[in-house]
Amino acid sequence: MGVCKTLAVSGLAVAAIGAGVVYSGLIEVGADVPHSAPVHAVLETLRERSIAVRAEDIQVPSLGDEALIRAGAGNYDAMCVGCHLAPGLGETELSRGLYPAPPNLSRVGSGGNPAGAFWVIKHGIKSSAMPAWGRSMADQHIWELVAFVERLPSLDAEAYRSLVASSSGHRHGGGESLSQGHGGSHHEDSAPAAGQGEAPASKTHIHADGKRHVH
């Protein structure tokens, strides 16, 4: 009983200290200040193991089909390039300001783990800038993105732009209001029906050529 009581008291003391540290505001949450090495190691391990456990039963389809890769190119250029970059594109204002820094997928691709890439794209990651695209994208379109990401590190800037231009643009069946056409142009999928409000406000998109396109 003495050991159990000691453990219980120790546990309460640790919890009280932890609560005090949290409430004190001593932990820096600014995105311009990196985590300490121990905290970074814990968070990295937590993230990697969480993804690995949840992705281990995902069945990866064949990702070498050119049509699949081409379809993923348009969505990647419209949705991902601002954070994850592209061949020939340096840091953007967005990628430079994020912490943890999003991986440069034009260099690392899926890291040899397409199942993990699929899970991350679909479900996102808490407390990061990675959204859960599965809320608006069907699995087929997510696999298209994964197929393109697998191919991405082998592309140079010209090959990247060519694939994007030959794609069907920003289309994933999730109710997106604007689509990217060939060569980086954008057009509306459809005008709003009567009584359904005004057209969406204009948005700016940064393409791999570094230019801003307002749509």
Keywords:
215 residues, mainly alpha, Cytochrome Bc1 Complex, Chain D, domain 2, two-stranded antiparallel sheet, Cytochrome C oxidase, cbb3-type, subunit III, heme, Cyt_c-like_dom_sf
Verbal overview:
The protein has a domain at 37-166: Cytochrome c-like domain (Cytochrome Bc1 Complex, Chain D, domain 2, Orthogonal Bundle). Helix 2 (37-55) packs across helix 7, helix 3 (66-79) crosses helix 9 (157-166) and helix 7 (114-123) crosses helix 8. It is built from nine helices and four strands. Helix content is 47%, strand content 6%. A hairpin with a 5-residue loop joins strand 1 and strand 2. The chain has a two-stranded antiparallel sheet. Strands 3-4 form a two-stranded antiparallel sheet. It is elongated, with a radius of gyration of 22 Å.
In short:
It comes from Azotobacter beijerinckii. The chain is mainly α. Helix content is 47%, strand content 6%.
Secondary-structure blueprint:
Blueprint: H1 2-24, H2 37-55, H3 66-79, H4 81-84, H5 93-97, H6 105-108, H7 114-123, H8 139-151, H9 157-166, E1 178-180, E2 186-188, E3 204-206, E4 212-214
Antiparallel strand pairs: 1-2, 3-4
Helix pairs in contact: 2-7, 3-8, 3-9, 7-8
